[in-house]
Amino acid sequence: MRLALGGLLLIGLNNAAAQAPLRFVVPDSWAMPMVQLEHGRPTQGILYDVMLSLATQVGVPAEFHVLPRGRVQSAMEQGEVDVRCYAAQSWLPNQSGDYLWSIPLFTQPDLLISRPDPHTSVIPANLSRQSIGTVLGYSYPTLQPLFDANQLHRDDARNQEQVLEKLQAGRNRYAVSNQWTLDWFNQRLLPGRQLQGLAVLQEQSVGCYVRNDPDVPVQRILRTLLRMKMSGEIDEIIRLYIGKP
């Protein structure tokens, strides 16, 4: 009897060990409230919580690969990672490989922002020649014609939070930020010093995509993401960090 129980326990342990982790890619340009990186590893944040919950509900361990933004797509193509979240198909017009996309999970506007200013709105095309705070490797379709015409110039920082820190310090008069990071950054500032949005540059629906590989539980992942969205779980995670969905 003991031998039989021991055999069953060994089988159970082997099955648990055989569960391949779900490998998520995390661009090192992400910042809070999307992801907090400490010593090169994610520890908290909206996307970290979503990815960790996804893996838990799928029933496999989560494994996070922090990579430079320029390496993210090649890592997907080479099978080094399985899932990329917070992406849009319009960002990857020449995407190669076999992938399946989730439903849209988040909607994020990109805003032209400034330090506190009595002007409540600005038309980017009317700005004088100057530098604009941007994130290295990010594309800004609305501003690209102005960059091409040398009317505006990119002042790239490694991540979105550094863009806001440079703006607050007066390095630039204007910068571009997503709504999440702006809300998170403003939480630690007094009302009279909070950065403000001046214009919506673009609004993008983003989700996750998965390598269509027999070794990856693709349909289980997509069904779980759908359930997390429809149940309100994803919106609750967002509220946890910035107080609104």
Q: What is the gyration radius calculated from CA atoms?
A: 21 Å
How much helical structure, as a percent, in the residues?
Answer: 25-40%
Label the CATH architecture of the largest domain.
3-Layer(aba) Sandwich
Q: How many independent structural domains? A: 2
Query: What is the mean predicted local confidence, pLDDT?
Result: 89
What's the number of extended β-strand segments? 11
How many H/I helices? Answer: 8
Classify the beta-strand content into a percent band.
Answer: 25-35%
The name CATH uses for the topology of the largest domain is D-Maltodextrin-Binding Protein, domain 2
CATH structural class of the largest domain = Alpha Beta
Q: What are the secondary-structure elements, in order, as H or E?
A: HEEEHEHEEEEHEHEHEHH
Largest sheet: 9 strands, mixed
- Spell out the CATH superfamily of the largest domain: Periplasmic binding protein-like II
- What spatial form do the alpha-carbon principal axes imply? globular
How far apart the termini lie comes to 55 Å
The low-pLDDT segments are 1-17
How does the helix and strand content classify structurally? alpha/beta
